[in-house]
Amino acid sequence: MGSHTPSKLPAIDFTKPELKPGTDQWDSVKVQVQQALQEFGCFQALFDKIPLEIRETIFSASEELFDLPLEIKSQNVSKTPYHGYIGQHPKIPLFESINFDDAHVLENVEAQTRTFWPQGNIIFSEIIQSYAKGIIELDQMIKRMILEIFQVEKYMDEHMKSSEYLLKLIRYEGPRTSEAQVGLGAHTDLDLVTILYQNEVNGLGVQSSSTGEWIDCIPSKDSFIVIIGESLHAWLNGRLKATYHRVMLSGDKPRYSVGLFTVPKAGYMIKAPEELVDEAHPMLYKPFDYTELYSMRFHASNEGRYTESGLKGYCV
Ligand SMILES: O=C(O)CCC(=O)C(=O)O
Ligand SMILES: [Fe+2]
């Protein structure tokens, strides 16, 4: 008695073939998105446009990549903080990741792939590109729905033109403990929207934006976890909160996940549109360039001045 049933993230069906703006189906899914974002700040999206074969092989491709010797992986450096290979960090020892910029363009993936396999690896590149292409379709539907919810859909084209896509492959080593260990500490993402997909090893938790309760995500092969980032929170002038999330792991199996991060292009100033600013809703954040803020947050975190919300530290 009195026991509390843990909440489950709502699962919203994006698989209907006729899911097009202006249709009844679209409006009904949009209402579910609105409710889920108000209550949890997050939801699972059921989506079948990425062939199951690609969804399965993305994890074996990821395994092939992370199994390469460390000397090869660490050659994949980038001038952009957090891009390229990340691993062996003392604060997150189980975590490794590799980012692919604009991975829906095959030539980009192939060029980056050659830093790992000098002769190229076309099968790997095609899996990454095909996954990225499909998941971007889901991202764009979700973004359009969110803009419609706040009646600012006239900015959709501007959003599309000013955004780029980062595909991040992630591996967490199994900690070989029965007690959960931190894979990635609680944080918000700085981007606009993140869409996560994982292998069968669970561990992702999200914090409900209305109650603060931590909810374990138990997605299926057909579901993707949708998370709101701080840039969208700022652009919407606080109408949606950025979702806190973390990864806790136990057991010995590695957890593989893949995240699509939509990020504003360098030089694009994130500024809430006038429709969302009034006396009752004064502008919460000074306009900012995502890339600048991102690198400030990165350097601050290296100097130990990391604040959980980069925006609160720099843009108020
Ligand atoms: O591995 C996951 O599911 C979460 C990854 C994540 O939160 C991140 O890379 O920002
Ligand atoms: Fe994250």
Automatic annotation (TrEMBL):
Keywords: Dioxygenase, Iron, Metal-binding, Oxidoreductase. PROSITE patterns: FE2OG_OXY. InterPro entries: DIOX_N (IPR026992), IPNS-like_FE2OG_OXY (IPR044861), IPNS-like_sf (IPR027443), Iron_ascorbate_oxido_reductase (IPR050231), Oxoglu/Fe-dep_dioxygenase_dom (IPR005123). GO terms for molecular function: dioxygenase activity; metal ion binding. The keyword Oxidoreductase applies. Residues 162-264 form the Fe2OG dioxygenase domain. Probable 2-oxoglutarate-dependent dioxygenase that may be involved in glucosinolates biosynthesis. May play a role in the production of aliphatic glucosinolates. Belongs to the iron/ascorbate-dependent oxidoreductase family. This is Fe2OG dioxygenase domain-containing protein. It comes from Hibiscus trionum.
